[in-house]
Design brief:
The protein is α+β, with helices and mostly antiparallel strands. The protein has 2 domains: 110 residues, 3-Layer(aba) Sandwich (Rossmann fold), CATH 3.40.50.720; 80 residues, TATA-Binding Protein (2-Layer Sandwich), CATH 3.30.310. The strands form 2 sheets. The protein has a 6-stranded antiparallel β-sheet with strand order 5-6-10-9-8-7, with helices on one face. It has a 4-stranded antiparallel β-sheet with strand order 1-2-3-4, with helices on one face. A hairpin with a 2-residue loop joins β1 and β2. The model has no long low-confidence stretch (mean pLDDT 86).
Length: 198
């Protein structure tokens, strides 16, 4: 199954369809990327950059789904809408034959590696996302119980529980993903999560 990668920040975007068995994978590409990148929090973003990135990704998906795979991009496409520039960069030579994801003997470590809770500040939204430890999932019942302990404002659907705690809106989804609204600090998000769920 291909992964049609897209990313954008400021007025720039990048798109590339990673096709297993044909192209290098993202793990091969990572060592070639700059160590420091801009983010939406530091550089902002203009909506046309998002729309162009999404349109290019959609076009690649249509090529795959319609069987026109020979028309798919074979180079990383970069563009800057503000500077009116674009370029295509070939990455076929960076493919690592010993790569654990796309090499001659793949083991797909990203699919099998265990992980602990993961935290991320969502771009430009003052929201921290928590992906819980898969060995210790938080359920909708857990969230509803905590919400009732913390406040009266609790809303439950088959898909999520919305509640308020420590003056922050929280939404826990059925898969255990938690959004904490009104904060931009991952450290603060970690503290709130542990205060609520240990």
């Amino acid at each position: 199954i291909p992964w049609i990668y897209g990313a954008c920040v400021g007025s720039t975007g990048v798109v590339f369809p990673f096709v297993p068995g044909k192209s290098a994978c993202f793990r091969c590409l990572l060592p070639s990327l700059p160590a420091i990148n801009q983010t939406c929090d530091t550089a902002g973003i203009i909506s046309p950059a998002v729309q162009v990135t999404a349109a290019l990704q959609s076009a690649e998906a249509m090529k795959w789904l319609s069987g026109k795979r020979d028309k798919m991009r074979s180079k990383v496409h970069l563009f800057d809408l503000w500077e009116n520039t674009q370029m295509d960069i070939g990455i076929s030579r960076i493919r690592n034959q010993n790569c654990p994801t796309c090499g001659e003997h793949p083991v797909f470590p990203a699919l099998t590696a265990s992980r602990r809770s993961a935290y991320a500040a969502l771009c430009g939204r003052d929201v921290v996302q928590v992906l819980p430890d898969p060995h210790r999932p938080i359920t909708l019942d857990d969230a509803e119980k905590m919400g009732r302990l913390m406040a009266e404002r609790v809303k439950r659907t088959p898909y999520f529980v919305e509640f308020y705690a420590f003056e922050h809106r929280m939404i826990l989804f059925k898969n255990g993903r938690l959004l904490i609204h009104g904060i931009g600090s991952i450290a603060r998000g970690q503290k709130l999560y542990h205060q609520l769920f240990g």
